[in-house]
Amino acid sequence: MRDELALRAARPLRPSPERADRLAAYVVEALIDEVTLAPKPGLVDIRSRGAHHDLDWTLMCVSALALQPAFVEMARAGIDIGSMLALRERIGAIGRDGEARMLDATGGVNTHRGAIWALGLLVTAAAREPSNLAPDAVAALAGSIARIEDRHAPIRTGNKGEQACIDYDVGGARGQAQAGFPHVVHVALPELARSRSRGDSETSARLNALLAIMASLDDTCVLARGKRTALAEMQDGAQRVLDEGGAATLAGRRHLRALDRRLVELHVSPGGAADLLAAALFLDRLQGEATESSNT
Fold first, then answer.
1. In percent, how much of the chain has pLDDT > 70?
2. Does the predicted TM-score (pTM) go above 0.85?
């Protein structure tokens, strides 16, 4: 079953004309594009486990595909539920069910907990306001939803990212969402556009977008494993790659490989940055669809 799902992941998805199905397919496509992108420092990709021993590309693809029904349900909730409070609580319940589905599919391994939160909010927002799919508009609406209290959510989850937020006084995934995903809208997407405009390959442009996030994000995945010293090394290393011209240049690639080796040595993986890159790829896809529609 796992191999069958991985083979599905290697083929292009065929989104349904129905809006919720189509948007959920775009989310899964973004998750698979993110994990396939290589070489990513410290992260699972198609060529490496990164700093992980319990994850690989196949398992991440299995997880992404297993989550597709949850993203469909969230998008449908965005379309059907008028009350913002009811919507927030409904997608919270779907997200918790989706997390259980993920853990069942992966044998208990956390592959996409942060992505369920971030991309769940964004797909809900995109489904709710299909007339304005500009990244800043979708992210702002997602932030509005995230700021509503879910009365049924557990007060404490015990997750490592949550503990890192407490220990290091950072916002984490929740803070990023409630602020309207600033690292997606104001960091990743502008870097993606800059890299493309100067002629970088799509792979290099996406790597540069990831590095731009890593250079400034207080990534709780890194903090939880390596504390502030590892976070500083990651941020400095990512900025060094960008300062050398990014992943498209020889010097940039050399520093990228060095950063990858160092993060693996430290046993840290910027999973928060990876989730935000997937969010950026999703919003980029929506923006492309909106542009195509306006030109037809």
1. 92
2. yes
